[in-house]
Design a protein that fits this description.
It is a single chain. This protein is an alpha+beta fold. It has helices at residues 52-60, 63-68, 74-86, and strands at 7-9, 16-18, 22-27, 33-36, 44-49. It has one domain (7-86): Hypothetical Cytosolic Protein, Chain: A. The chain has three helices and five strands. It has a three-stranded antiparallel β-sheet. A two-stranded antiparallel ribbon has the order 1-2. Helix 1 (52-60) packs antiparallel against helix 3 (74-86). The longest helix has 13 residues, at 74-86. The radius of gyration is 13 Å and the shape is globular. It binds zinc ion (ZN). Zinc ion is lined by residues 10, 12-13, 15, 49, 54.
């Protein structure tokens, strides 16, 4: 039996990809935003390509705000960008 890879939609470019090609952003119950490499952290999550450009798009086009149903502060986005860079994304 073939197992279908679960697809998730990037909140930046809007493309659906294999979950493994994306990174999960999670808002913790404490209200901070983190990258969730394991996909198991608690909190509301959204998926993003491992690209700074998609993070920028998600921020500018309010994809982040829509996903988390609040205004995501620029400061939180900068922190996420730094985490993305550590992952060695494009
Ligand atoms: Zn994307």
């Amino acid at each position: 039996m073939e197992k279908k890879a679960p697809l998730r939609r990037c909140i930046g470019c809007g493309e659906s990809r294999d979950k493994k090609e994306l990174i999960r952003i999670v808002r913790t119950p404490e209200g901070s935003y983190e990258l969730d490499a394991t996909g198991r952290k608690n909190g509301r999550g959204a998926y993003l390509c491992k690209k700074e450009s998609c993070l920028e798009t998600a921020f500018r086009k309010k994809g982040l705000d829509r996903s988390f149903r609040e205004s995501v502060p620029a400061q939180a986005v900068s922190a996420l960008r730094e985490e993305l860079q550590k992952l060695g994304g494009e």
